[in-house]
Structures are given as structure tokens and as C-alpha cells.
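Appendix B: complex inputs.
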Amino acid sequence: DSGVTQTPKHLITATGQRVTLRCSPRSGDLSVYWYQQSLDQGLQFLIQYYNGEERAKGNILERFSAQQFPDLHSELNLSSLELGDSALYFCASSVEGGVGGYTFGSGTRLTVV
Amino acid sequence: EDQVTQSPEALRLQEGESSSLNCSYTVSGLRGLFWYRQDPGKGPEFLFTLYSAGEEKEKERLKATLTKKESFLHITAPKPEDSATYLCAVRAASNSNSGYALNFGKGTSLLVTP
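Resulting structure:
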């Protein structure tokens, strides 16, 4: 157990639908990072939150959004889902600046049918 | 733009056959080069962080080295349980786009056969 908890582990949904992925960071970590991993693209950075505030954006689509709550857990919202959104979604956490490393959760496998 | 390129894409070794994986990078202001191991369907597992050229770190059969342009992950006398995808990532000086996020290469898929 890495200390980063992601739920659900698996999600199957239809095109056009909306889903929410949840992440609880490791105790003491204030930064949360969301990544998407597909077979052809590898791990792509989506968005980072630090202590409740958006810190940086990567290759995140406008149909996707995220937030970090006062208890530091984070949610990634994916809407108007397309077949191409099928992927593994990972959450990672770290202390400020990534000092000491980044710890990844076990991921959520999203399948859009 | 920061770039991380790993080679080879896939590597098949016999048990005991040592080899090296390569990670070439281009980044503005390196703030750390990270190696992770990833098993199928699982999250990346941290192996090493290197911060400056000339630095080396070891863990069991793995040794990571860093130069100004690339990093190597040396695998000595590998065993079948070393089979996994090995990912290299860089952390650059913070900017408005990436913050302190890691930028990953596509990985090397390693298969060690008995």
C-alpha cells in the first residue's frame, strides 16, 4: 500500500456520460497530481493541486476538471466521455515541490463503451 | 519544451544477462531525474531520484547513473521478477504550465526469461 488511495479501481461507462474519480493523498502531502496513461501516449500530466488551489495544468481537455477539498482529497471529473478517454488514470501526491519524491496510487481503469 | 526519450522500447533478457536501459532528456533547469518501476495494471513504484551529473544510486540488482544529457539504469544479473516497465521522468524548475509535475518517458518494457 503506497498510502495514496484511488477509487474506484474500475469504471465502465457509456459515451457521453460523466464520471468522478477520487484520490486521497498520502498523509502529510499537500500536492496532488493527476495523470492519464494510455497505451500509445504513456503517462501524461493533467493537472496539479496544492493545498486546495490549482497549481499547474498539463494536457487536460476542457471536458475534464478537478478540485481539491479542505481535507486534501481530490476529485477528477470527466464529462461528455468519448471512446478515446478510455485509459488508466493515476493520482500521485507529494510535499511541496516534490521534495522526497512522488507517490502514486494504484489507478482507476476507465473503459468507455 | 522538455523531452524525455527512453530506449529501447522493449528488451528481452535471459536470467543473469546484464544490460542497461537509457533515458535521454532535454529540460530547462533539471530539478531531479526519477526512475520508476511499473507492473501491468499497477501504479508506478518509486526506485531512484538523481539530482546532479555524476550521481549514482543502487538498489539490489539496479544501479542508476546520471550525466548532463542522459541517465542509465543498469540491471545486473536480472531475475524473472525484474520483469516490468521501467519509467524515467524529469522534474524541471517550476513554471506556470507544469508546476513541479513529473514529465515521463514512454518506458522500457523489460522481460527476463528463466
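The interface with chain A takes residues 31-32, 34, 36, 41-46, 49, 87, 89, 91, 94-107 of chain B (CB under 8 Å).
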